[in-house]
Amino acid sequence: MAAPSTARTARPAYRCGECGWTTTKWVGRCGECQAWGAVEEVAAGSGPRTAAARTVRRPARPIAEVEASEASARPTGVDELDRVLGGGVVPGAVVLVAGEPGVGKSTLLLDVAARTATTGRTVLYVTGEETAAQVRLRAERIGALRPRLFLAAENDLAAVLAHVEAVSPDLLVLDSVQTVASAAVDGAAGGVTQVREVAATVIETAKERGMATLLVGHVTKDGSVAGPRVLEHLVDVVCTFEGDRHSRLRMVRAVKNRYGPTDEVGCFDLSESGITGLVDPSELFLSRATAPVPGTCATVALEGRRPLVVEVQALVAPASGGQTRTRATGLDVGRVGMVVAVLQARVGLLRTPGDVFTSTVGGVRTTEPGVDLAVAVALAGACADQALPVGTVAVGELGLSGDVRPVPGVDRRLAEAARLGMRRALVPRGTLAAHGPDGGRPGTTPPWGAMQVLEVDDLRSCVARLFPSREEQPGRS
User: Where is the stretch described as Lon-protease-like (predicted)?
Assistant: First the structure.
């Protein structure tokens, strides 16, 4: 009788195309990133299959001998985008710009391509979503016709690489990575396998040629970048392009940046004639009312390092249908609900069932805790039907006990408010400790100049100071 064989049959292995998680059996949902339908079978091997190369293209050098100028950023000509990228685009870097359909990604990158071509560099714009004639019409509308800007409409990855070989561009714009497919791998364009192959090939080409690359990416319903999660790890910079399609305001944020900060934001104004950067966007977020209006309060939100003066509006109405509602436009509805609860429990307002509506002016969206005090003051003014004096701004975070907590960057916030003509500010206790005649630095001028700054300890005392004769109006709470 023959001895039993000790050799083991290789078991199939499965890997998630989103995050790389592996398992020995197929499952419909990844156990790591919880993605559905992303687990695929991969060839199982007994060990490593890649051997060391006999020759290398670039030998290792001492780090001090590496030329650092190769990684210096080159401005794109769009100052707001350069602010987010850290000065411009680095040669060989791959930037992923993701956003919802119709938000203006193609318009922005076509403007970037035209401005880059104006500096004498060669730019190749490849579109996979439109025809070349459609892109040409948009370029004519926004004034982006340049002799060194080349245009191609392709959906095949091999054809895109052929255009790169023929044009030898300094900057490549691919719109979008989900519409280009490779014949070397299976699957439709936009699938996990195709997106991974297209991105890896383009990135390898960009690194070899020192070609800066801008990739347009789609987003899913939950706002994340469509395609495999490994796409965000492969690229050097990930930017999100945000904005309400009913508003002209657009914002670019850096989620990942290997060459610069990730706390900057660029503001743009999108119109029929194109997209332009907004050096001073705060004026878009303030109403034009010259007389005080109940239920309004200005605040200063920090978007990255940039302070933006935003007006918060609130309205309290009788409940419709016997069920109360809390609605928020441009604000975090969860934080608005918390502010309403604090007003009920700590101040005694909004105890009668009613609908609460809050909104920001200009389509800006801010979710940071520093706007809590402004939301509470606006709601208190709506309940009392009393208006704050024009030029009042409130900055502070609310605790569940009703206390007003400090927030970072108060100096920058108040300096921006003073620049726009605000005359009085409500801030948490301790803000003046480092400024003014009693702040330990006599003779120094605070960043907010002559603006009156009032410190508040808690929401109850703040509301009592602002609305001393407050009385909830019948049917408004």
Answer: 355-477
